[in-house]
Amino acid sequence: MTAQSDENRLSQIFKIEGRDFSKAGSISTKIKEILQEVGIDSSIIRRAAIAAYEAEMNVVMYAKKGELALDITPEKLQIKLSDEGSGIEDINKAMQEGYSTATDEMRELGFGAGMGLPNIKKNADEFDISSIKGKGTTVNIVIYLNQAEKK
Amino acid sequence: MNHYYHSIRIDTKKCTGRMNCMRICPTQAIRIRDRKAIILEERCIDCGECITACPEGAILPLTDPFGELTKFRHTIAIPSPALYAQFGREILPDKMLSGLKTLGFDEAYDLAMTCGEVSFAIQEYLREYKGPKPVISNACPTIVRLIQVKYPDLIDQLIPIEPPRELAAREIKKKKSKQLGLKEKDIGAFYLTPCPVKMISIKQPAEKGKSYLDGAISISDIYGPLLSAMEGMEKGSYRKALESICILGIGWGMVGGICRTLRLRNSLAVSGLTEVLKVFDDIERGKLKNIDFIEAYSCPQGCVGGSLTVENLYISYNKVLKLVEDLEFEKIKACPDIREVRKLYKQDYFFMKRKIEPRPLKPLDEDLSKAIQKRREKEEIHNTLPQIDCGACGSPTCLTFAEDVVRGEAEISDCVFNLPQKLKLLYDQMSDLLNKSVSLNPALHKEKKAKTGKK
User: Could you tell me the residue range of the domain that residue A71 belongs to?
Assistant: First the structure.
């Protein structure tokens, strides 16, 4: 039995509006609450919350709108983020710590330290990113719930 | 199952089920069942918001009556620095401490001195600290409980130093038992508390050890007697009284007092539970990593805003602030010797003996697969609800109601919006019964047939 029956799966989609700074962060808080109710270990919850928050902020800062899809099974949790926006010109550069295209205004707000994507990657067990310039970006991360069975 | 002792009791005779408490509770720990409020022990963090919210006065803090004093051979009052802010600007701590002695305590101890020592110890701790930031103050027991329940992953950021009230009780008992030749258990140390949660931190410390204090008496209970006691007293020298105040310690009564008197540049001070929740969410997201220290209190403006204080919290906050400013201006530093504190710090004098463990809420199910299923069911139920959080079902929001249903603690028909469905169900059941009785009673059967025949 390799296929995951749908009974044991929890999927939820959250919409994110670009530039809506007032609500920024609310999705990662909701995700945290869901994971707590399900009884996930708090260190994993923290990693997921940080990754979700950084991903959410990327959409708020750089995209028109986006969607975060959360998917939990007893083995792993997956967060898939896709946005409609300008896309990332050079992904390799964007993955470097300290690299940022944030405007001065965003930096004033405490963002744009160039840690967003590296931070997402650091907190995930699996990470992939793809982007089409002028269209948008997709980020996909997986965190295994039983860290002992990771590999 | 863990049993949590709480400082809050509901008087069911007075409770009219008006839901004010249920709506204000920051951890959704109150439900209304059969028109009476009940507290879900596991969720309650003893913040006392419900006490102030209840228009009927049906929610009571549990503190010790004065009578408890007679159980001990030697009694010591240890007032929270918030007491010092309760009376007019001219009344300084020395007068209050003398006043307390006329009320039946053998001694009154100035906690501000110990607060000052702990401030220095915090400074030492921050200097050596290498873990995740910011470090969070444990002065407020509600904040400690909030972290145990809602932010378990921040537990290692709580400062592991004994709060001053505990440290003071520990040391003074040691000293007095030697001095007076009494056993430590014959010495009663009573905290004069601005809030109900400190009572609980004595009966059931967050770290599950034993408190060094023997009880807590509410500041509001002692206010009147103390005021009368002070009225008859001679007026001493203001300047002299001022010189005995430890500036580091007096600041503990108000939010920001620790940060200000220690001159911690890279720190935040936050008060009021809703504000604290916002800041803690930000810490979890990794947003405040460059802050060294956070002072957080559940009551607005810090301990002076506790629900068992008497004076308006802005006035008392201002009194502490003015006192700190006066002491700064006069350059009065009646504080503990920092070298002495450093020596004690190295001897582990300040550290708590036990670790604070998380107290996360029970998951929807112990089994992960089932918990995931139940979480999905909760979402599905929530989608069928009106989502207006009316509270008529007895749960504070539609989302918590959906959770209560999934946990088997509420019925879906408890929602008034499901009433039509419930009525239909009842109607169906009744007509079923009726049909059965008709078929059992041929006479009724005939009558019914005759009626339909007429049409």
Answer: 10-149
